[in-house]
Amino acid sequence: MTTILSLDNVSYAYEGTTKNVLQNMSADFETGLVYTIIGKSGAGKTTLLSLLSGLDVATDGRILVGKASLKKINRDTYRSRHVGVVFQSYNLLTNATALQNIVLSMSISHCPQKNKKAYAYALLKKIGIDRETADRKILKLSGGEQQRVAIARALAHNPAILIADEPTGNLDKETEDDILNIFARLAREEDRCIIIVTHSKRVTAIADVVYRIQDGCLTAENG
Amino acid sequence: MYIIQNAMQNLLRNKGRNLMMAAIIFVVIVSSVVALIINNTASGVINDYKTRFGSEVYLTVNMEKVIQESDGSSRIARPTIPAEQLLAFASSDYLLSTKMTAGGRGNSDDLKAIDEDKGPGGGPMLSMGPVPGGGGPGDSNLSSIPKTRQYYYHLFANQYDDFESGSRELTEGSRFPEKSGECLISQELLENSGLAIGDTIKINSDINDPGTGPGDETYYDIEFQLTIVGTYQDLTDEYGNSMMENAFTNRRNEIFMYIDDLASVVTEGLMGIDVNATYYLKDPDLLEAFTAELRAKGLKETFDVTTDEASYNAIVGPVVAMKGISLTFVAIVLAFGAIIVALLASLAVRERKYEIGVLRAMGMKKSRVALGLWTETITITAFCLVIGLAVGGFAAQPITNILLDQQVEAAEQAQSNSFMPQPGGSGPVAIGGGPAGPTVTAGPAPGFFGQTSAETIKSIDVAINLETILEIIVIALVLSSLAGLIAIRRITKYEPMKILMERN
Asked: In chain A, what residues touch B499 (CB-CB under 8 Å)?
């Protein structure tokens, strides 16, 4: 296990405001572990996730990827190569097929696979999406299937870090279990760092480390 | 590569929006193709006619200036251009070519004129056109003209229009005079005079200083020693359309000489030999510079230097008007097209904000997102370009016919309205154009009251050419690049997280 992502006194205030919603946060994230970030609605969980995934920039402090500051890495490159993000509302290209979503993500990341389609089919199969479903447009897939496609897309470029925002929020219990098993397997068998923002106790149950955001501060609950 | 693939997939995924975009671009392209075909063809026609009509220069007397400079004198002398000046003008670098012609009268003891018994003609004050009238035995003018100033022979230099039209032809072994001292006479005159090709003849003529008026003339006798280098057959009636029948007006008594022999004897103020010069500019736009050069070489301010604008306008006017319409049309189409394409591009980016947010969240660079959108627009444009060129090519001819018909009708209407002579008008008058004209001339005037017998262009064949294709490609590229720029400008304002949060 190695530390792959660190927060070093990170603070964040929304544009045009002076009050920090995230205050002096420090934490290390290691490979092979599942992390969950919990907290009340509006506590800043999704904001923290956007900072960790390079979608936004901290107003203060540093985010380190390995030993390099995220400020010194091109954020587009970071998103396309180092981190995979699973959004709460999936954020898939709805007029494209599941397969096209995966292949496009691989192309953006300049994945070395020669046969991207075959790789994408295999990846989707691993996540529980068969070939027929893979060739359907996103809008014709169920919520659970879309969530799986979103996870597959996040993994398509083989990132060391996977960040997920309420990944099971819209799913039934059975599908939720499936998804959580996938996350646990990705961490333990593939040595990835999994960071999940959630309200769900079922999700928290599979976590190795639980962080709580309260009053803008990040505290570890168990390890 | 994936950007192009993704762009192609997007085109198929969003058929409705792309078809609408394609329809608008198609209309812009077809309209532009038609307008540019008309414009380019019209430009070609105009340039062609401009070169033909606009390059021939006329030196005409401006009578208003002549009257202004007369100081109230009762006798206004028409200004003349000395032959040496006409020759000096011909050396201008602005000229493509110069045609010098000359005409005079003569007698010869070595020749026996055809219809000699009908008497001489061609008194000093009589007209000296290419087919001049002349006094017959009953001509009251002749009674006042001394016998020594009555002539049997017309002398011409460089006036071979009849040979070009076929009404005269050289006999076998004959040629035109090519150097000083050579002449060409009719076969009948040669035979009537008992001469042969290669014989030398002497021609007597005169030039005169008109002085203060009739009776005050001073005559200067001149003599030409000429070798007959050929003969011609005249295939027309001996007297043509001449009202007078005498030896002087008989076409068989016309003698063709070398230009320098006739022109070199004329100096300023002397009459009796007409010297004409027709100048052809390399480019009609050089008229101003040429005029300045002529002034520097001594051309009086009483002469206007013009081109045949009346004929040019009458012939090309409708085409010029049609070109103007097509240019205005293409400008409007492009302006509206650009606005519509810009709006569509802006709306497309706005509509695809979510898609852009997702792509950006996946790590796609802004430039690549913009490139993808631009590729889509370029593909639609290229597709429309191919079809638009074909459709526009077919539509251009009937549209041209309709536009030109309307313009011809309008031009004819305008011309018939302006046909009435305007009272008090005193436009430029050509030297040598009327009776009793001065001896040194510089070409005929275009016409009276701006009227011309020139035939208006009533139809033109339009076709798409490489120039039009290139222009359309440039227009299409500019329009699609405009769309691309607008997309880039909008995309740079978007942050993926904001887009996705707004959506959520």
From this structure: none
In a structure prediction context, what are the per-residue pLDDT tens digits for chain B, which is 504 residues long?
A: 777 877 887 788 778 888 888 888 888 888 888 888 888 888 888 777 776 665 788 888 888 888 887 766 666 667 778 877 888 898 899 988 888 888 999 999 999 999 888 888 765 544 333 333 333 343 445 555 666 678 899 999 988 989 988 899 999 999 999 999 999 999 999 999 999 999 999 999 988 887 776 677 788 889 999 999 999 999 888 777 667 788 888 999 999 999 888 888 877 677 788 888 888 888 777 889 999 999 999 998 889 998 876 667 777 777 888 888 888 888 888 888 888 888 887 887 788 888 888 888 888 888 888 888 888 888 888 999 999 999 988 888 888 888 888 877 877 777 666 544 443 333 333 333 222 222 233 443 333 333 444 566 777 787 788 888 898 889 888 888 887 788 777 777 777 777 777 765
Chain B positions in Cβ-Cβ contact with residue A104 (cut-off 8 Å)? 2, 6, 359, 362
φ, ψ for residue B296 (rounded to 5)?
-65, -30
Judged by CB atoms closer than 8 Å, whether chains meet at B363 and A80 is answered as yes
**In this complex, is the C-beta atom of B17 within 8 Å of any C-beta atom belonging to chain A?**
no
Mutation site, A83, A107, A162, interface B, largest B CB count within 10 A:
A107
Q: Where are the beta strands (DSSP E) in B70-115?
A: 95-106
What is the count of structural domains for chain A?
1
Q: Which domain holds residue A80?
A: 3-222
Record: contact B358-A153, CB cut-off 8 A: no
Closest CA to B176 of B161, B189, B154, B195: B161
Lowest mean per-residue pLDDT among A65-69, A155-159, B126-130:
B126-130
CB-based contact A113:A70 (threshold 8 Å)? no
Whole-number Å distance between alpha carbons of A216 and A26: 12
Interface contact A140, partner B, CB < 8 A? no
Of B14, B363, B503, the CB nearest to A79: B363
DSSP state of B209: E
Residue A30: enclosing H or E segment and its boundaries? Answer: strand A20-30
In terms of CA atoms, which chain A residue is nearest residue B496? Answer: A55
- Tokens linked to A6: 């660190």
User: Does the ipTM surpass 0.85?
Assistant: yes
Say if pTM beats, i.e. exceeds, 0.80. Answer: no
Sheet holding A83-86, edge to edge: A83-86, A161-165, A193-197, A34-39, A209-214, A217-222
Selected residue of B6, B13, B358, B501 to mutate for chain A interface (largest A Cβ count, 10 A): B358
Q: CA nearest B353 in A: which residue?
A: A93
- Helix or strand holding residue A134 (H, E): helix A131-134
Q: How near does any CA of chain B get to the CA of A47, in Å?
A: 10
* Helix (H), strand (E) at residue B36: helix B15-54
Sorted by sequence, the CB contacts under 8 Å of residue A20 that are 6+ apart come out as A11, A12, A13, A59, A60, A216
B358: contact with A, CB 8 A cutoff: yes
- Determine the residue among A104, A111, A135, A162 to mutate to test chain B binding: the one whose Cβ has the most chain B Cβ atoms within 10 Å: A104
A80 — contact with chain B (CB < 8 Å)?
Answer: yes
What are the DSSP calls for B301-353, one per residue?
TTEEEEE-HHHHHHHHHHHHHHHHHHHHHHHHHHHHHHHHHHHHHHHHHHHTH
CATH number, domain with residue A134: 3.40.50.300
Distance CA B130, CA B160 (A): 10
